[in-house]
Amino acid sequence: PPSPLQPPGRPLGPCRSFSNNKIQVELDESSGVAMMKFKSPPVNSLSLEFLTEFSISLEKLENNRACRGVIITSAVPKIFSSGLDITEMCGKSIEHYTEFWRAVQEMWLRLYGSGMVTVAAVNGSSPAGGCLMALSCDYRIMAENPKFSIGLNEAQLGIVAPFWFKDTFVNVVGHRTAERSLQLGSLHPAPEAHRLGLVDELVPEEKLMEKAAAVMAQWLALPDHARQLTKTMMRKAVLDRLVAHREEDIKNFISFVSKESIQKSLRMYMEMLKKRK
Amino acid sequence: PPSPLQPPGRPLGPCRSFSNNKIQVELDESSGVAMMKFKSPPVNSLSLEFLTEFSISLEKLENNRACRGVIITSAVPKIFSSGLDITEMCGKSIEHYTEFWRAVQEMWLRLYGSGMVTVAAVNGSSPAGGCLMALSCDYRIMAENPKFSIGLNEAQLGIVAPFWFKDTFVNVVGHRTAERSLQLGSLHPAPEAHRLGLVDELVPEEKLMEKAAAVMAQWLALPDHARQLTKTMMRKAVLDRLVAHREEDIKNFISFVSKESIQKSLRMYMEMLKKRK
Amino acid sequence: PPSPLQPPGRPLGPCRSFSNNKIQVELDESSGVAMMKFKSPPVNSLSLEFLTEFSISLEKLENNRACRGVIITSAVPKIFSSGLDITEMCGKSIEHYTEFWRAVQEMWLRLYGSGMVTVAAVNGSSPAGGCLMALSCDYRIMAENPKFSIGLNEAQLGIVAPFWFKDTFVNVVGHRTAERSLQLGSLHPAPEAHRLGLVDELVPEEKLMEKAAAVMAQWLALPDHARQLTKTMMRKAVLDRLVAHREEDIKNFISFVSKESIQKSLRMYMEMLKKRK
Predict the structure, then answer these.
(1) Which Gene Ontology molecular-function terms are recorded (chains A, B, C) (predicted)?
(2) ipTM of the complex
(3) B84 catalytic, yes or no?
(4) What's the whole-model pTM score?
């Protein structure tokens, strides 16, 4: 809802509050902070639809001068996001794989390269692509529940994290921690994730949103322009690397996902997930 | 003063002790260690004159075979160096900006690339360019007074640290800590700076010089040649990057500092500093 | 000895257990884990013969589909490996220096680039080249005896670690720790090595092999293919750098080792070692 502090006479922008299928977006124009809440049960998996909605929402906020920061979090209990939606990779056409992978890239390019301050309020487990989203923010706060874990666990599923997942990870935790964690496909319980620097802070779950708002206020105290140029200076090399190799990266994904052995293990994995429920 | 341990018959070199306007230099030929004391009150700001004197003094020591190590510290209470002198960036000619920025580059190229062992005895606060000088040494010892802080706080002033400030910072504290600290323009109190690895050691202020001498002795126990080649191997990539982009970096600075908006905010900042006194 | 769990009817491969002069190799085909034990007293120095045997043994295991992981350790009390054999660098022909240095490169290219899981069970001191071998593994466990130390101490001997020693070191401990440790030629006692991240874990010496087996089992729980591709992604840049500059690196070594001053200091060093005994 619009803040009571909103200056009188300010026009109601188109994106003060908009909700699509998968993500609810609320912009508090008085503080300049938007909240993006993932509401795609059961596990906020990153389907083509989810990713498209995410990128469009983020672009809208980016172009809205009233918005300076975004907090991303989940409306689904116990899970932040389960990562890429495996059904998008199973038994689909090459055209579909292409479109899907481009949407994954787009999400990351927009989030890692966002000019806004981005804070992840990680209020549940966050494997694989979910972890990437958190890693791509400026700051990560996690609920201190040791049952919640986070990590790039692709290797556990017999697949390899793309190079730009790895680059993002190395920029956060350094080469050695990334090498070990990626090879083992580790999912780190919150306390361990904090020790490794994968998340910046742990707080009790009920304090998570309050803390996220406080951190955001601290970052927004800085003038935007200098902060944005500084962020670009830190992240440009890694962003440029995907931009330069984007089509090649799509081809790699297609050639990988088209293998019969991979299709088989993805199908088995989906069966297992269904039985678990 | 020459040490009583100086071997008899050793010629008195030309640079045993020389003092210019801004920096006092004393070389103890018996130990091979020079002390450079910043004495440019009120805050040892890095004016064109200060920087020129620093580079010339360092070059003299570098070329003096009796000198193997340098300790840099401040003769002004509570401040190591306040960083670049803002008056050099305000209302001056393009020729002046060019000369000034070249002097900033020169200081860093000589200090970060010095073949001597360099130890910073940080006996006061050290923002921005002052922090860069400390980061460019081989080892940093700071007085454990939590009122003293250190950091690259450019973003706080609405400006962006040059890429080679950033490269030097990343080499010391790693990518993640640098990204966060630079975006927030953080000034870290001594204990936090130590936790982040920005300084190597904290000691009570009265033990600072003693400790600096002990650290220097430890580093000088190594043969110079192998140590110098090792240092070059670690630092060359980052030094070469500025050398390759030096003129471009000057142009960037001029175009930035010539903006009316920047001139205005620098004038306001100077007014504020004057009122503070 | 072959494990009692070995499936009946499995052909006895050529490399279940083979012992050459310098290194004893045992492969437990039931677990897929080979043990390489350095047994070249007094100090497991890396002579041409040792290095050649190491590379050939590793290649055999790499090509044996029954082998998925290797634990390297020492059969000599108190020493893991003392590093490069100085007698190979003293008073020999250019042809010999070339052959020797190529064997050092070969050892590292094979070990750092191995598709198998590699665990170092560091059961003694491990300076210079011995430290490089440990750094090149996927995981390092060290006996918690503070009398055992590890590090790239080349600078202490007046020589410079090659750039690929440095790259491997930086990938493990980060730029700052590497810069300081390499310049000082530090040999870190086990507890300090653990604090710096140079080794991943310390255990009482009598538990070392048990722990190494447990760690290996954890790493082998992952599917090989994804783990191998992930490892390649993390290490390829550094491996490629030596491959691209291999001949240049050999020339550098020859030109260095051919200097009369270096020959002299190596001879003095060997004299000192002889007297110590």
Answers:
(1) delta(3)-delta(2)-enoyl-CoA isomerase activity
(2) 0.91
(3) yes
(4) 0.93
